């Protein structure tokens, strides 16, 4: 059994090898209609998106096979290429926490601050009783903070509850605690409650990934390798300055991140919201990752901070059979470990994109996959796709009409 040259194997060989890898002789699970109907409202059909794997990525000296769900060509290929170049990626995520907020009006700022000072310990004790099951698992409420916000019409007071959801994402658990605490805060302060709800933003809670790449891995020609490393670092620097470039830079990172989030049944929309707020936390939208070129040591250094409020239990992933299969494929990691792997995939994806953009250009790597997609669109059968792709790649500026003409010519020759 081997995952080497996985892309060259037939679909049947890939499935056999993956089943052997996870010691699972059962068929790949599917989402049955009865279960799907319980997951959402007004269910009709299950929409299919391709699932593939990143055969190997090394994180904290451990190799992972990572499932990825995406409809975009080149995402998995780029992640695989980036992972091979980068080697071991160091990742750190000390403790996964989320924040919720209780927002009040009809108080002065002095009254709101004094209320927290006098009642903080009592409020925390109360919340721990509400979330006793999470506390028993080693998580639960951690701290309460305060901020005020004013508009032309109103002064708002926000009490932030810091919460450790353990292996779960924790939205439901936190919202339950917030709603209970809101009633107590209302009684203790005399203020009016506007809302009590979790936030998907916590700028102090993020994964940090770092890698050091010897320049010689970039090209067998050392002069070209040094030049490429310098250009990657410059492209990274520019992405810190121009939000137009930063947006696309970060989208490339999220190509990999979202694919793993979807595969593992995590809330990719919550992560996307958190990530883009995090990228703007200094008042300007910036790139998440940075790359530095050390010419003396002949090294390219990459690093990235990214918030990843992910889970390995609860919610959709606990009832979605393919999400459970995906976690099994990764060795059933804890939430912190899963976040570290996902962040590493994002960094590998980013490296591959930057390397392509500043060298041969992004389109060269896409051409074969785009040609294949076009061949399928114009009706090429399985045995016609590869020959048609070869013909398309030999032409400049191919389109659907050319693909149809070439397919007709193939069939009539």
Write up this protein.
The protein has 413 residues and is of the alpha+beta class. It folds into three domains: 6-94 and 205-359, Alpha-Beta Complex (3-hydroxy-3-methylglutaryl-coenzyme A Reductase, Chain A, domain 2); 98-199, Hydroxymethylglutaryl-CoA reductase, class I/II, NAD/NADP-binding domain (Alpha-Beta Plaits), CATH 3.30.70.420; 365-412, Helicase, Ruva Protein, domain 3 (Orthogonal Bundle). Helices cover 48% and strands 19% of the residues. The chain has 14 helices and ten strands. The strands form three sheets. Strands 3-8-10-9 form a four-stranded antiparallel sheet. A four-stranded antiparallel sheet has the order 5-6-4-7. A two-stranded antiparallel sheet has the order 1-2. Strand 9 and strand 10 (299-306) form a beta hairpin. Helix 8 runs antiparallel to helix 9 (268-279) and helix 8 crosses helix 11. The two termini are 41 Å apart. The mean pLDDT is 93.
Describe how the helices and strands are arranged:
Elements: H1 11-21, H2 33-39, E1 51-59, E2 62-69, H3 75-86, E3 90-92, E4 98-105, H4 109-130, H5 132-136, E5 140-150, E6 155-164, H6 171-189, E7 192-199, E8 207-214, H7 222-239, H8 243-263, H9 268-279, E9 289-294, E10 299-306, H10 321-329, H11 335-357, H12 362-377, H13 382-393, H14 400-412
Antiparallel strand pairs: 1-2, 3-8, 4-6, 4-7, 5-6, 8-10, 9-10
Helix pairs in contact: 3-11, 4-6, 8-9, 8-11, 12-13, 13-14
